[in-house]
Amino acid sequence: MTVLDVRDLSVRFRMRGGREIAAVTEASFRLGPGECLALVGESGCGKSVLASALLGLLPGNARTEGSALLGDLDLLAADERTLARTVRGRRVGLVPQSPAAHLTPVRTVRSQLEETVRELTGVRGRVLRTAAEAAAERAAFPAGHLDRYPHQLSGGLAQRAATALALVGDAPLLLADEPTTGLDRDLVDRTVDELRRHADAGRALLMITHDLAAAQRIADRVAVMYAGRIVEVADATAFFGAPGPRHPYARGLLDALPERAFTPIPGMPPELGDLPEGCAFAARCPRAAAGCRAVPDLADGVACHHPHPAAEEASRA
Amino acid sequence: MGNRITRLRASGLVVAAVVLAVLVVPLAFPLDEQAVDLAAKLRQPGLSHPFGTDEVGRDLLLRCVYGLRVSLLVGVVAALVATVVGTAVGALAGALGGWADRALMRLVDLFSSVPHLLLGIFVVALFRPGVWPVIASVAVTHWLSTARIVRAEVLSLRTRPYIDAAVSGGASRWRVAVRHLLPGVLPQAGLAAVLMIPHAIWHESALSFLGLGLPTHQASLGNMVNSARGSLLAGDWWPTLFPGLFIIVPTLAVAGLAGAWRERLDPRRRSELTL
Amino acid sequence: MLELRGITAGYDPRDPVVRDVYLTVADGEAVGLLGPSGCGKSTLARVAALLHRPTAGTVVIDGEPARGWRHRAPREQRTAFGVVFQQPRQSADPRLRLRDLIAEPLRASGRSRAEAAARVGELAAAVGLSEELLARRPHEVSDGQLQRACLARALVPRPRWLICDEMTAMLDASTTAALVAVVEDYRRESGAGLLVVGHDAALLDRWCDRTVRWSTLVPNKEDASPRKAT
Prior knowledge:
The structure holds 3 protein chains of 3 kinds.
Chain A: E1 4-14, E2 20-31, E3 36-40, H1 47-55, E4 62-70, E5 73-74, H2 80-87, E6 92-95, H3 99-102, H4 109-121, H5 126-138, H6 155-167, E7 173-177, H7 185-200, E8 204-209, H8 212-218, E9 221-226, E10 229-235, H9 236-240, H10 248-255, H11 311-316
Parallel strand pairs in A: 3-8, 3-9, 6-7, 7-8
Antiparallel strand pairs in A: 1-2, 1-4, 4-5, 9-10
Chain B: H1 2-28, H2 60-96, H3 98-112, H4 116-125, H5 131-158, H6 161-168, H7 173-209, H8 221-227, H9 229-233, H10 238-265
Helix pairs in contact in B: 1-2, 1-10, 2-3, 2-5, 2-7, 2-10, 3-5, 4-5, 5-7, 7-8, 7-10, 8-10
Chain C: E1 2-9, E2 18-25, E3 30-34, H1 41-48, E4 56-61, E5 64-65, H2 75-78, E6 81-84, H3 88-91, H4 98-108, H5 113-127, H6 131-134, H7 143-155, E7 161-165, H8 173-190, E8 193-198, H9 201-207, E9 210-213, H10 214-217
């Protein structure tokens, strides 16, 4: 069963002077209920644009191609009215990047939760109060803090409040866009563990992050994005453990972690408005060869002409 | 979007035409302020006098252009003086902080507590009628908001880490102020100056209309509207209408340009007309 | 040796975020300061760089007490510190091209354009910025590229002490490793001391000679942030 089916999704921005920015190119992935897919990559690789595309929140100069099926609804083709009335909050819950900014500063958590519950479920009157408290409880937000204002909350509680809001509509798909940026490590762990809990409750979870440790902690599968393309989709256990990533870029990212080799990938990612011919990673790649002048297709979970061997090949060798 | 661009183009055209007219027309058609031709008084607009003539037979088109020239002079100079004073006071208050900030801002409060038209009238009353007292009067009453805007901007810029980085890099107070703080507030101050031009023009007209501004014989839009009151009651509309339009249309055009500039500075803030 | 002695500091004198903290960084040493966000460690970092006046305590630089804070500190004491902050966007003057941004400390101390250009070229190569990127303004580059420029700016006056306040918190793993490598090269070559403020234990343990936990610096932990509920 599939909750979200993204096929050949491309996003282009038309800039002044006729310049075009290839923010996302031919991204495809599927996401089932109870499954967590982590979309990882450096900042500026196009992963946040992909999230905006799924929510219909792209600016006016953006053009999309491909499809993103949520059930039988194509999110890319849907009009704003449909998205606002039936999709955001109801079929896709958004866990935002900076929860403190996502909450209205002048209203208590309770009043914001009650408003969202009323808006999404139509519950009114005395039941509303208990419904809002139940919604808070689902995100492990303590009832004793409901009457506080966002600035009176710690980062962790603000994140839970934002998650509670995202869960109200009981959406089958949760989209978390960099949910752990700027949080301390133990807070990161707690936040993603809670997200995992919601996935275990049957939701599909798409987590967009540059925090590899957070991805490793909760993801079932990992999609690696580089220069607007998904260059590898892999099972999380194989990706973070043995035999490791197959794409040289993904290997480089993991090797840069302080827990591992702590060595950077040489050079910097190319500009999305000025992508090189062929494989965009070739200029930084230790395995690059003449054949890399052609763009590699995503085949067998990796888009590379010279990938590292997959698990079964590795065990045979 | 198209609408906005049309409005911007129209504003630009009007402003360009006004500037061209006040620069070129006086070279080609000198105006004798004292000339009176009672035989030709209160002529309707026609071929020889496109805007008609006033109650002593003077050509209204020429006087409107000359009046506009005076108004623009007053508007631009007063706005510049007010902006320089306001920016200096605001930047000093924001950059120095402490008691200097408190003293300067109490001064601003003091000026603000007097209704500004009243204060303006007080200033012109101290001098003989003329262009400079009017400029002084408008400038004295209009630097306050600029000082407040600039101070707030400086205060917010001062806490940015890049100021910390400059201090740590060895930059002197002077260098921080001139290289990092001032360039940050100049767009805001410049915008305030342009927005002030229409306001200053209206003030000049208001003072002249009250008979307190420019000498009554001088061609000024305010004076012309004032002296046309009598003929308006008699049904002669043109001596009021044309000078009135000459006040309204150019000021709207300048405000339109300023609004477009403001949107460029901060697209989230929709342009609102502040006259 | 850089010594923080009995530092109490904050923004409201009745409720300081840093209370009576002692911390020492030896010449050439890399010290990590690990603490949760909002605990006051950034304030302490600003005090150490002479950018924030503490309400009590002193900073002693190679045996000489700091003679003032911010502009009141003599230029040679101020420029003995290079600082890099968490948010590159907030740390870069939006009007300056990266080339001028990096050269700013040299220009501020009256060095000639030619001398500044030579040193900028050297550092741009070290942090991996191309000529083309140096000609751009902050809004035309990525966070990672801008942070590279901010690091170059901190290194430009050849500081004796480098203070990195959550320098890599916004960056991906590869850019983090690259910037840390630049800092370490500088430290090895110059013998400068380093104070790294952060919340990532794995990073600080890997990077620094020793890591100090914030909770061990603050006499009474419960007092540190009484108004935040967790």
